[in-house]
Amino acid sequence: MLASLNTGAQLRAAVSNTNSQDHSTTVDVSNVQFFWSKETSPTLDIRSFTVEQGEKLFLEGPSGCGKSTFLSLLGGVNKAATGTVSILGNQLENMSGAERDSFRADHIGVIFQMFNLLSYLSVIENVTLPCMFSEHRRQRAFENSEDIKTEAIRILTRLELGGLSILKRPVTELSVGQQQRVAAARSLMGRPELIICDEPTSSLDPVNRESFLNLLFEECDKSGSSLIFASHEALLAPRFDRAITFEEINAIRGTSCTTNSEVQ
Amino acid sequence: MPQVKWAIPISLGDTHKGYQVLGTNENYYKHLQFGSKQHLSLERGHWFQDEHGAVIGAEVAKALGYSVGSSIVVSHGSGDISFIHHDQHPFVVSGILARTGTPVDRTVHVSLAGIDGIHAEINMRESHLHDPLADHLSHDDHTELGEGESPSISAIFLGLQSRRDVLTVQRTLNNYQGEPLSAVIPAVALQELWKIVGTVEKSLLAISAFVVLVGLTGMMVAIMTSLQERRREMAILRAVGARPAHIFAMIVGEAAFVMAAGVTLGVAVFYGLLLLAQPVINSYLGLFITLGTPSINEIVVILIMCLAGVAIGFIPGYRIYRYSLADGMTVRV
Predict the structure, then answer these.
(1) Is residue B14 located within the same domain as residue B82?
(2) Which of A195, B8, B146, B246 is most buried, judging by how many CB atoms fall within 10 Å of its CB?
(3) Domain end: B151, B184, B217, which one?
């Protein structure tokens, strides 16, 4: 069924071609304000935020403070009211909703805090899911392997999940650590230029967290992807190229931190 | 009468182990049609030649284990238990008819002379069991029936040369003064019956419509309640690049799939049950149910049901569309 959803390939191809070559800056956000539909005061007010190509950025902040909202702006799910969000040289606010969805499918991998996987798909189907929505990432998957299934197994093997016993198991029977690594494999599939993680390690114990980070870093280096890693665990910060707190970039303070995540 | 093409006399009133005994002649075999204008055919043996011969239906032969040459004793009256057995006048099975799926299967056919023979014996024994119609009939000249037939006739099937004569013949017979006769056109009688049954059929259809409606509502409620849990799933799909339209299509597709599966299962169960019940109904009620391909009407009903399933899917589809716009990639629990 998912294969049939892969429509509008031309649109996607057009979007893929819009990014100019040799952009050393992967993410460039300036003067962005964001309002939830019923709010009068902005949830986010970000003067400047950049991520260089291949950079691993740690974004620290307590939960419920607009971090997830900010990440969804970068992913193009939500649209900024003012200012520019530029990913790989493409300004997201100039795109339609469908174009932003295609752009996200082509260039961005996402890892959530937990429950990243679709329970009715197999491990390999979960990993190859982005290729169902993006011709661009399917093509890039072919650069390493002759088909996307082989590529999925290759990445899973690198994340120490290549064993047949794991590949055959339903995803709901995997441990949380294994599930997060499958999610990482999915976000790495087809080497997207930007990987966004929203608290990916907070459900992991310290041992699993270390190995998850090691493997994620290794794979990001190999594919040259930039990494934005949002977390409230400040002790992870030293391992990244750069660490900033969310307060540094967001000018909005106070009570809005706790209420906004509840607004629909 | 010149309009009459053929006539089949029948004489009822006796049974054999619960099966109807029918007195008739060879016209029955020659002219009686059933189903889609099929003629009777003998599976084994031949049509009875004399007053001791009997031709039995397929069901009778199977149930009682008779074959050509078996001897049969006929009882007076209907029902399994009768105290008057015509054991002085046994019949010998001369032929077995092929299965027709009609009451013919459950009938023992003997000659009118045979019926006459057993009743003559009764009349001798008990004079009060005398058939008043028999005397009248014996004076009439039923030329179509041939010579030497028994007068104890219950009814006569008439086949006409032309359909146009049917009303004229009916009126002539109903106005006949010589004896009390009433002419019935089976097609008209059946049509009147169908008129009554038709109302029942319509109310059953209305009930089915409500059952479908309840089913659709149930499916919608099931999908709606699952949506809340599935917002996470939708967030994952959105994160890997699915558009809200994809998610809408998935939900509507799910409703359509459930509906199509349900309809397929329903049709399969319907045919399966019919297939299982067919022999049972046939042996207990004597009704033969044919298994055919669904009619155009039924196909239309099935299609309407599938479309209704898709239409119902639009409601949760629209809601998940709104959710996915509002939630974006944020996983809400």
Answers:
(1) yes
(2) A195
(3) B184
Q: Which SS3 state, helix, strand or coil, does residue A210 take? A: helix
* Chain A residues close to B236, C-beta within 8 Å: 112, 116-118
- How far apart are the C-alpha atoms of A82 and A15, rounded to whole Å? 22
Residues B238 and B93 in one domain: no
Q: Please, which pLDDT band fits residue A10 given cuts at 50, 70 and 90?
A: very low
- pLDDT band of residue B99 (cuts 50, 70, 90) is confident
Question: For residue B214, what pLDDT is reported?
Answer: 93
B250/chain A closest Cα distance in angstroms: 8
Residues B279 and B307 both lie in one domain: yes
Summarised one tens digit per residue, pLDDT across range B183-196 is 888 888 888 888 88
Contact B242 A133 (CB under 8 A): yes
Q: Do A118 and B326 touch (CB under 8 A)?
A: no
B142 and B21 in one domain? yes
Last residue of a domain, one of B140, B164, B184: B184
Alpha helices in chain A (DSSP H): 2-5, 9-17, 67-74, 97-107, 123-133, 135-142, 148-158, 164-168, 176-188, 206-223, 246-249, 256-259
Residue closest to A64 by CA, chosen among A262, A250, A228: A262
Give residue B190's identity as a one-letter amino acid code: L
SS3 state of residue A212? helix
Q: Based on the domain organization, do B117 and B225 belong to the same domain?
A: no
Residues of A in contact with B321 (CB under 8 A): none
Q: Lowest-pLDDT range, A43-57, A200-214, B303-317, B318-332?
A: B318-332
pLDDT at A257 over 70: no
Q: Is the pLDDT of residue A12 over 70?
A: no
Total structural domains within chain B: 2
Mutate to test the interface with B, among A36, A104, A228 (most CBs of B within 10 A): A104
Token pair recorded at residue B314 = 């639009």
Whether residue B131 sits in one domain with residue B60:
yes
CB-CB: which of B241, B249, B330 is closest to A101? B241
Q: How many CB atoms lie within 10 A of CB B224?
A: 14
Kindly state whether residues B53 and B123 are assigned to the same domain: yes
Of the pLDDT bands very low, low, confident and very high (cuts 50, 70, 90), residue B97 is confident
Domain range enclosing B281: 191-329
pTM for the predicted model, two decimal places = 0.62
Q: What is the pLDDT of residue A163?
A: 78
CA distance B227 to chain A (A): 14
CA distance A124 to chain B (A): 15
Q: Please say if the pLDDT value at position B83 is more than 80.
A: no
Q: Which residue has the higher pLDDT, B323 or A259?
A: B323
Q: Which of A68, A130, A261 sits opposite B240 (nearest CB)?
A: A130
At residue A144, the 3 state secondary structure works out as: coil
Q: Are residues B55 and B172 in the same domain?
A: yes
